[in-house]
Fold these 2 entries.
Entry 1:
Amino acid sequence: MSRLCSSRFERAARKLGWTRIAGLDEAGRGALFGPVVAAAVILNPKRRIVGLDDSKQLVPERRTQLAERIREHALAWAVAEIDAQRIDAWNIYQASRQAMTAALQQLAIVPDYLLIDALQLDVLIEQKPLIKGDCRSVSIAAASILAKTHLCHGRSPRGLAPAWSHPTAPVFVRPGAGRGLLVCGGHPNCTTPGCNYSLMECSPGCRGPK
């Protein structure tokens, strides 16, 4: 499988008569906790944006630059998020689909064709799910970049990288706590709820290991 990100899927769709092609992707699905964010983007075929690729392959500075260009030159774009409480109530798969559907509904232009990273949505629009779509389709890559940028602009709990997927210090989640509750990241045996999604910080009452 080629990992070269290009517009070949968009060109193939246009040859079939589709003209308003939206790419959709999410960020935060593999995170320990926090929201899942999805973006939908309809790129302008007459305005090429150089460097589009899977957001995970881009350094933050480059990702931010590309996000600005996408917002400036895309025909339409939208971002939506599903919070941790709703993820725990549904599951991460359904929450990701709901976030994508919400972003799709917010687009100023109604698309007639969807390119989606791996998932299918319950909408009456022609769609093509692509495995590893964020590194194969420029439209999905653009959505990946907007979703990741939006997610990383949130405040991260102590000891975690901005996207909350990869801890920069030990993080221990109490079994059954779900994505909304984190146990103090500095104490392997801590029994005090140390962080949660709304506080984003260690609890002053943390007793440390017990």
Entry 2:
Amino acid sequence: MQPPAFRFCPLICQIGTELQFRPVSAILHDMETTGNAGTSVPLGNVALVTAGTVDVVLVTLRTQAFNIDLFTKLGCDVRRKRLVVVKSAQHFYASYAEIASQVIYVSAPGSASPDWKTLPYRKITHPKWPIS
């Protein structure tokens, strides 16, 4: 494993995870991305690494993937990618929808599911719009 990628591992790994990266393509310190209101959003130290045929952006400060400049500042042209995946509820849409032929939302278990009907609401009286 490359030493710069090792610094990011606590953010992406569980104990026992094996990661194999090709050499790190880009590293930027104190990088910022553009927020939805045009504001600057800090990302901390950022690296672009490749795992197989997949480019991965690793950041040290947790935030939303607001803008495609998260990739382009690292030299990754997302317009040329067949598929771009970001972990974001809705914050990504304004920037990424401009370049996407399709936007697909994925639901994962947890409190941030976009399908509100799957969440175990225990302390509300039903019916409650838009849940029931």
